[in-house]
Amino acid sequence: MTPISETNEPVVAKRSLTAPLKGAVALVTGGNRGIGRAIALRLAVLGAAVGICGRDQATLDETLSALQKIQTPAHAESADVSQAAEVLRLVANTEAALGGISILVNNAGVGLFGPMQEKSEADWDRVLDTNLKSVFLVSRAVAPGMIKRGAGDIINISSLAGHNAFAGGAIYCASKWGLQGLTACLAEDLRGHGIRVSSVCPGSVATEFGGNLQKKAHALQADDIAHAVEMLVTQAPNSFISEIQMRPLRKA
C-alpha cells in the first residue's frame, strides 16, 4: 500500500520506483474532491497520467495542482458527465492531452435521501443521471479505444446501497442497484476484449458526500477506496476481481 501522510495525502517521496502504472492513462470522473481526488492522486503516484473532471472549477484547479506536484502528466476539465456531448468532449480532450485511456474510474455521484413520496421527478432524474446514466455514457465513449488496444480497466464506484435497502434511500438505492447490474453486464460484454469491469462498493465514507464528519469516526476514509482501486488495476493480467465490498472495521 502506498504510504500516506498525516494529511491523508500520498507520500510522493516514498513511492515505489517500479511505478507499476507507468504508461497508463487514467480518467477519474468526479476526480476533483473526496473519493475521486484520493483515487486520482493514488493512480498518479503509481505512475499513471491522470485526467479528472468535475463541476467545481476551484476544486478542479486545486486537485490539478496536487497532481502536477507528483510530476505526472495531468489534465483537468469541467464537465457534466450526464450529458453525452460533454462526455465526448471530455474523452477527446483527455486523450489529446494524455493518450488513449486505459483506466476509467466512474466515480461521479450524488445522493438525495428521504421518503420516496416526498421526492420529485427532478430529484429522480438528478440522481439517476449522475449515478447511472453517466457510467453508461463515459464507459461507452472509452470502450472502443480499449477494445482496439485489447486491454483496459473500467472501475465503477458503487455502494453497499447497491445491495441493501434502507428507509429514505429509494432513489439512491435504485441508482446503485442499477449500477451493479450495468457493471455486471458491461463485464460480460467486454471481458472477451481483455477489458475488466469491476465495482467497488463501500459503506459509509468520511467525505463531504457523507454528511457530518464528526458523526463518522469509524467510517471508511477516501484513501481506503483508493487502495481498493489500486488493487484492481495492479492485479495479475489474467485475473479478474469483479467486485469489492468494503466496510469499516468497527461499527459506530
What's the CATH C level? Answer: Alpha Beta
Major sheet characteristics: 7 strands, parallel
Give the neighbour order of strands across the main sheet. Answer: 3-2-1-4-5-6-7
Give the CA-CA distance, first to last residue: 25 Å
**Name of the CATH homologous superfamily:** NAD(P)-binding Rossmann-like Domain
| Count of distinct strands | 7
Question: Percent of residues in beta strands?
Answer: 15-25%
Number of helices: 6
Class per helix and strand makeup: alpha/beta
The name of the CATH topology is: Rossmann fold
Q: What order do the SSEs take from the amino end to the carboxyl end, as H and E?
A: EHEHEHEHEHEHE
CATH architecture: 3-Layer(aba) Sandwich
Query: Radius of gyration in whole Å, from Cα?
Result: 17 Å
- Quickly count the domains: 1
Detail the poorly predicted runs: 1-7, 11-15, 210-214
Average the pLDDT over all residues and give the rounded result.
91
Can you walk me through this structure?
It is a single chain. The chain is an alpha/beta fold and 252 residues long. It has one domain (20-246): Rossmann fold, CATH 3.40.50.720. 40% of the residues lie in helices and 15% in strands. It has helices at 34-45, 57-69, 84-98, 121-149, 170-190, 222-233; strands spanning 25-29, 49-54, 74-78, 103-106, 152-157, 195-202, 243-246. A 7-stranded parallel beta sheet has the order 3-2-1-4-5-6-7, with helices on both faces. α5 (170-190) links the parallel β5 and β6 (195-202). α1 (34-45) crosses α6, α3 (84-98) runs parallel beside α4 and α4 (121-149) runs parallel beside α5 (170-190). The longest helix is centred in the middle third of the chain and has 29 residues, at 121-149. It is globular and about 50 Å long.
